[in-house]
Design a protein that fits this description.
With 343 residues, this protein is mainly alpha-helical. It contains 14 helices and 2 strands. Helix 2 runs antiparallel to helix 3, helix 3 runs antiparallel to helix 5 and helix 8 packs antiparallel against helix 9.
């Protein structure tokens, strides 16, 4: 009896589908949704279920790799099954999001981020390498399915997780956002390529009912997660006085500027630099024409519809030092009591 159970267990391990981590993905999605709806008991229950499945599946995959390496690596060269390994990335990412959102354990989430990234680096390259080099090339109607969009889902899962944990890490924000943006672009590029192939397959190849398997639901999921990956709140990088001073030494036309709180939704007041908007005129433009332009703008400030019109100020406008003033502009500012430099 024990021998039969062992044989059955080994058979299950050997035949384990690469996409089994889809269970962790689905459970994590429902758990986070319950959390966002305020149903904490259900969210936590599914979280602990997910931990159990996550550990069991990792054990199964490691045993399969050790006991049946030919089957494990052979699946990578299978066009229909190979992309399923990338559910490991998305599943790990979702569990990490649960750790951060449900428990506030950003340290665990960060550790799982690096695990997911390592798994992604291995499988995204190993899978494509195996598919490119194998001699078994099936026709497109048998080789392409919705599971191929897991290439996009895995990329965007890392992007979303990175955005969730970035404020709780020691990462340099500018560098991290640059790399996460590059990863987002990679996922979007893969989506464009794969969805084109899927549409081609559906439109130009025979379609049997059994060919519409559940993997095609990933088509919608890939779009959703790509959209979600762009939904991180705006983050502005401010400048301190020291860096502003250094910037002005080399580029004196920069002015210190405060972006008011509320200019961008959820973004606090931010100190930065700005370039003063300046109208440039050639020397051969008549003095009267330039005078009339200045007069029309500054005497009608209340009637200007531009969002920045409220910041117009004659005194401020007379303080530009980067370029000399036209004689017509100097005449207008002189009438207002301000002397400005001219050629």
């Amino acid at each position: 009896m024990r021998g039969q159970l062992t044989a059955r267990a080994l058979a299950l391990i050997r035949s384990a589908a690469p996409a089994n981590f889809g269970m962790v993905m689905a459970t994590g999605i429902v758990s986070i949704a319950l959390h966002l709806l305020g149903m904490e008991a259900g969210a936590l229950a599914l979280f602990y279920v997910n931990i159990g499945m996550f550990c069991c599946l990792w054990a199964v995959y490691i045993l399969r790799l050790g006991l049946y390496p030919r089957d494990f690596f052979g699946d990578m060269a299978d066009h229909a099954r190979g992309p399923g390994y990338l559910t490991m990335v998305a599943g790990t990412g979702l569990l990490a999001n649960q750790c951060a959102l449900l428990l506030g354990r950003y340290d665990l989430a960060c550790g799982l981020f690096w695990l997911a990234l390592a798994v992604w680096c291995f499988f995204i390259w190993a899978d494509f390498l195996a598919l490119f080099t194998t001699d078994r090339k099936p026709p497109i109607e048998k080789g392409i399915n919705g599971a191929w969009l897991l290439n996009t889902v895995s990329c965007q899962a890392l992007v979303i997780l990175g955005c969730v944990i970035i404020d709780h890490t020691s990462w340099d924000h500018e560098t991290a956002f640059l790399l996460l943006t590059a990863l987002f672009g990679t996922g979007f590029m893969l989506y464009a390529i794969v969805i084109t192939l899927i549409v081609y397959r559906l439109c130009y190849k025979p379609l049997a009912p059994e060919a519409l398997d559940p993997t095609f639901w990933v088509n919608a999921g890939a779009v959703a997660i790509t959209t979600l990956a762009t939904a991180k709140d705006t983050y502005l990088v401010g400048l301190d006085d020291e860096h502003i001073a250094k910037l002005q030494e080399s580029s004196p036309y920069y002015e210190e500027y405060i972006i008011p709180e509320g200019t961008y939704e959820g973004v606090p007041e931010t100190k930065t630099v700005a370039v003063v908007a300046t109208v440039i005129a050639r020397d051969d433009v008549s003095e009267d024409d330039v005078y009339n332009i200045c007069y029309t703008i500054f005497e009608n400030m209340d009637n200007l519809a531009h969002d920045k019109a409220g910041e117009l100020d004659v005194e401020f406008a007379s303080g530009v030092t980067a370029v000399p003033y036209h004689a017509g502009a100097a005449k207008y500012f002189a009438e207002k009591g301000f002397d400005v430099p001219t050629k």
